[in-house]
Amino acid sequence: MIRIGNASGFYGDRFTAWREMLDGGELDVLTGDYLAELTMLILARDRMRDPDLGYAKTFLRQLETCLGTALDRGVRIVTNAGGLNPAGLAAAIGKLADRLGLPTQVGYVEGDTIQRPDALSANAYLGAFGIAACLDAGADVVVTGRVTDASLVVGPAIARYGWGRDDLDELAGATVAGHLVECGAQVTGGNFSFFTELPDGGHRPGFPIAEVHPDGSSVLTKHPGTGGAVTVETVTAQLLYEIGGPSYLGPDVVTRLDTVTLHPDGADRVRVSGVRGTPPPPTLKVGVNNLGGFRNSMTFVLCGLQIEEKAALVRGQVEEAVGKDGLEFTLARTDHPDAVDTESASALLHVHLRDGDKARAGRAFSAAAVELALASYPGCTLTTLPGDATPYGVFTADTVPQDAVAHVAVLPGGERVPIAPPTRTSPTSPDESAPGGEAAIGEAAIDGPTRRGALGEVVGARSGDKAGDANLGVWARSDAGYTWLRTWLTVDRLAELVPETAPLSVRRYELSNLRAVNFVIEGLLGAGVAASTRFDPQAKALGELLRARVVDLPADLPTGASR
Asked: Structure pTM?
């Protein structure tokens, strides 16, 4: 097997994780994922200020603390921290290695940049064969730009086992392993619905390791003595993160998530097997970031009686001051009746303005809000001083033909090796959504004795963002729980429990192998995370909102986990 650890799930993850993973036990490869959709926008703005930037600068500081250890122990490093400038990061690593007196072979992968004159950035999601080529050439460190997150694991597995383009099941199995570790501690108990059941209560989960075998199967684990846990449920939670239907599209393979089998394999070990793959699509996903305009926000505190009337007064006054275009008002009823202190008696009125005119969205708006302090509702106060507008980005996704992208591996010696696209592809067709919304199904599921309780007593959930859409994966803790869940939690039921989903298009998928259903809620996040004004702009808390709803539960349904 090849032991592949992960030390970063996003740009800003635990700084010491690289050191912890190298010191904690045996590894063959250590990966780091830094690129979210929002991160690409941040890096694009960095590069606008300085063309030599565009990569995750934090990685260099992390590498300085542990490069010598990695070289001494033969642990190879693979990261997408190159962002929009993998060549620049590779050069910076070379300078760092020279300064430290550590001869280091550095390779990098490029070709993901798509020329879009009207975009801040446009990048294709490349596959794993460029990474494998760099490792085959002896690279100690491999830097990429925009590759799929799972490619950081798939590439080293290809290099170890010599898989080719037609080894689809093996590539699919490694893709699942990559998807599981890509978000760092999220698979070892981080952000886990049942965190209070973890041995350390979820205080400091360790980072994950995937032991990938020649047939593509893997065991998910972590270093001994680290926090959190690796269980079938923590792995299930991460499998459901930011997915759509059962067909998980990638540049090298389409992974069938409905074939994944999970089994306990000892303490903090879960075996992942049975994964099947089909030929990849003839196109690559392209993530495009554009400047959407400028935004600003002010929040009014409304205390005591007549909250709705106070909010209406502010709305009218702000609209009269700056005009209605681009304004958005959100009233958060955080107040409680007959409260004994100001905070618990208060609601929050969030006022957002988005506009192409920086001046209108800036002080013209925020100063107008502050000017109401002595001329509006009783008890008028705001949470911030007036401020300037900030730019925001809009993320969209489209596709380009695989053979239209010049995927290149730049080897440690400088040789440029073109990575040919797959010769065997298959047109994609949408996964068939499972039935949802039929009242008869929902009614049949609640026959028999019931009790009132929070939905989260019997199910876990994990939610996240994909551009302007959100996904919400919900899993049952027992076979009996899934029998009930799959018929009870329909699209219509979701609309009742989470009303903001009601006017939107929602696709529902069943993953019986995981005892789960997954919802894709189209347009919940508007023009994407950077442009969203939702209280929870990345939909990270959507699953916990659903779990907190009090519903009629089958009285005999167990609340604990079982297989």
From this structure: 0.93
Beta strands across the sheet bearing 516-521: 459-466, 469-476, 516-521, 506-511
Tell how far CA 457 is from the center of its chain: 25
- At 148, list the tokens: 């799929």
Which two structure tokens, joined as six digits, stand for 515?
């005892």
- Euclidean distance between CA atoms 298 and 366, whole angstroms: 7
Task: Spell out the SS3 assignment of 342-410.
Answer: CHHHEEEEEEEEEECCHHHHCHHHHHHHHCCCCCCCCCCEECCCCCCCEEEEEEEEEEEEHHHCCCEEE
List, in sequence order, every residue forming a beta bridge with 409; answer none if it has no partner. 109, 417
Please list, residue by residue across 342-352, b when 16 or more beta carbons sit within 10 angstroms of its beta carbon and e when fewer do. Answer: eeebbbbbbbb
Q: What is the pLDDT along the chain (563 residues), one digit of tens a residue?
A: 999 999 999 999 999 999 999 999 999 999 999 998 889 988 998 998 999 999 999 999 999 999 999 999 999 999 999 999 999 999 999 999 999 999 999 999 999 999 998 899 999 999 999 999 999 999 999 999 999 999 999 999 999 999 999 999 999 999 999 999 999 999 999 999 999 999 999 999 999 999 999 999 999 999 999 999 999 999 999 999 999 999 999 999 999 999 999 999 999 999 999 999 999 999 999 999 998 899 999 999 999 999 999 999 999 999 999 999 999 999 999 999 999 999 999 999 999 999 999 999 999 999 999 999 999 999 999 999 999 999 888 888 999 999 999 999 999 999 999 999 999 999 988 888 887 644 444 444 556 899 999 999 999 999 999 888 999 999 999 999 999 999 999 999 999 999 999 999 999 999 999 999 999 999 999 877 677 788 888 999 999 999 999 999 999 998 877 76
φ/ψ of 74, rounded to 5, equals: 70, 25
